[in-house]
Design goal:
Elements (H helix, E strand, L loop, with lengths): L1 H56 L2 H10 L22
Length: 91
């Protein structure tokens, strides 16, 4: 009976220590995952800000202002269609 008790006690201690180790690892990984999720949220916010800036900079009003600042002028008349090019005939 003593051997069975010792074996059970050893098995219990090993099981208990194993569970503590696993619980500790889960806790550490959860903390790392939370830190990564926080970083991901920050990066997504930065991406959103950059997209907003790109949309504003590429808007028609902004491009028009930049064109005028560079010296472009507004067209006065309609664009004329150039004459159709002649097509070389087959020999």
């Amino acid at each position: 009976m003593g051997k069975l008790l010792k074996g059970s006690l050893i098995l219990f201690v090993i099981s208990f220590l194993g569970q503590m180790f696993i619980a500790n690892q889960v806790s550490v990984k959860t903390k790392e995952l939370n830190a990564m999720n926080t970083e991901l949220a920050k990066i997504r916010s930065q991406i959103s800000d950059i997209n907003q800036e790109v949309f504003l900079e590429s808007s028609l009003a902004t491009l028009e202002k930049r064109a005028y600042a560079l010296g472009f002028v507004k067209m006065q008349g309609a664009l004329k269609n150039p004459a159709k090019p002649t097509i070389a005939s087959a020999l």
